[in-house]
Structure to design on (287 residues):
């Protein structure tokens, strides 16, 4: 009996040793699979953060970033609240005018003080153009590719392209009242660079730039849902001694625009009251 019990005890120990060895091998294979074994299934799946093909970026550690600019927030009608504009003639020193243009401004001021009429594009039925077209207000429409600004007399319509980075070469660019405007975002500010403006466009009321290279940069920034700030810088080697920067503040208004046209242009600085050919015809009269 002793021999049988000894044999049984030895057999049991051998079985237990075999089980321990098998368990150790299985654990080693799970921790370090060989080239022919199954791939590890622990950890993030492919494409997940931290996993194969996924992002390793960590979550935000500071205050959340502001949402990206939305050009559609600019859509609507805007009316001037504050501006440096003086009507009809700016005071001396307001613009850094060249001596020639300062002499013109002084002559306009003397004429205004004497009760004369200051001749501007408005009273000659000519679209005001940039920069004067946005003096009192404008309307913006927009989509993902461009925004359209409607303002001034005429009215003047200009397009601001949002995905173009180079202006049309000057020799191929046809001058216009609104010019060629390219926009891009700098933070939450829409920066608009404009060239190709008609030389007859006025840098201030009644005073044309006479400069085919007039360059304007505007910075549109929403201060609130109902307040829009526009800071403009004018550059002209013909009319200005240095770049001139000014700021306008606009408020959002419920206004969709209206048709505007000139009924009676000025002739010799006075309203043209000449009756139509054939004499006056009363309304409703047989023709």
């Amino acid at each position: 009996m002793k021999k049988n019990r000894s044999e049984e005890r030895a057999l049991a120990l051998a079985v237990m040793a075999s089980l321990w060895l098998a368990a150790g091998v299985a654990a080693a294979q799970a921790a370090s699979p060989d080239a022919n074994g199954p791939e590890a299934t622990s950890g993030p799946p492919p494409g997940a953060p931290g996993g194969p093909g996924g992002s390793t970026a960590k979550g935000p550690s500071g205050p959340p970033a502001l949402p990206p600019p939305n050009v559609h927030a600019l859509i609507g009608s805007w009316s001037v609240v504050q501006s440096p504009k003086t009507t009809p003639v700016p005071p001396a020193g307001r613009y850094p005018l060249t001596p020639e243009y300062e002499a013109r401004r002084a002559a306009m001021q003397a004429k205004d003080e004497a009760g004369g009429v200051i001749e501007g594009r408005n009273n000659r039925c000519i679209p005001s153009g940039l920069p004067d077209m946005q003096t009192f207000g404008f309307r913006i429409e927009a989509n993902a590719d461009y925004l359209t600004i409607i303002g001034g007399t005429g009215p003047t319509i200009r397009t601001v392209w949002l995905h173009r980075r180079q202006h049309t070469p000057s020799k191929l660019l046809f001058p216009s009242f609104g010019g060629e405007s390219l926009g891009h975002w700098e933070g939450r500010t829409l920066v608009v660079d404009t060239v190709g403006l008609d030389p007859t466009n006025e840098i201030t009321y009644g005073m044309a730039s006479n400069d085919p290279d007039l360059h304007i940069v505007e910075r549109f920034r929403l201060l609130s849902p109902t307040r829009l700030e526009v800071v403009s810088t004018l550059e002209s080697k013909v009319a200005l001694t240095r770049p001139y920067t000014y700021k306008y503040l606009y408020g959002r208004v419920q206004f969709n625009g209206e048709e505007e046209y000139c009924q009676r242009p000025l002739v010799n600085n006075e309203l043209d009251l000449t009756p139509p050919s054939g004499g006056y015809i009363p309304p409703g009269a047989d023709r």
Summary: Residues 202 and 209 are 6 Å apart (CA to CA). Helices lie at 2-31, 99-113. Residues 30-65 have pLDDT under 50 and may be disordered. The two ends are 144 Å apart (CA to CA).
